[in-house]
């Protein structure tokens, strides 16, 4: 995201332990390299936030993410909603 020029990001996940690990400044000196790198990126440039979203509140985003993995393209525009999304909304 940084290489594409984005300065702000809101990351939403249903993994509470990930949110806690990334927002706990006391873990900056932990031995987990990937955790330190992500924390450094989140502090360094722009506004980066990570937020916990319960799984039951993220079903539509989950369906869209799964569909996007099958398309192999960075952008899709739709005139109508997919059945999987419509079913998740019900």
From TrEMBL:
Domain (RNase H type-1): give its ranges. 2-67
Highest taxon listed in the record's lineage: Eukaryota
**Which Gene3D superfamilies does the entry mention?**
Ribonuclease H-like superfamily/Ribonuclease H
**InterPro entries tied to this protein:** RNaseH_domain, RNaseH_sf
Q: In this entry, which stretches build a coiled coil?
A: none
One annotated GO molecular function is: nucleic acid binding
Q: Cite a single Pfam family from the UniProt record.
A: RVT_3
Name this polypeptide is given: RNase H type-1 domain-containing protein
Organism, by scientific name, is: Gossypium klotzschianum
């Amino acid at each position: 995201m940084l290489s594409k020029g984005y300065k702000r990001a809101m990351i939403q996940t249903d993994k509470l332990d990930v949110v806690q690990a990334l927002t706990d400044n006391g873990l900056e000196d932990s031995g987990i390299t990937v955790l330190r790198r992500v924390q450094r990126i989140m502090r360094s440039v722009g506004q980066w936030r990570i937020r916990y979203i319960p799984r039951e509140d993220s079903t539509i985003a989950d369906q869209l993410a799964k569909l996007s993995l099958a398309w192999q393209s960075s952008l899709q525009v739709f005139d109508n909603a997919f059945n999987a999304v419509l079913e998740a909304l019900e």
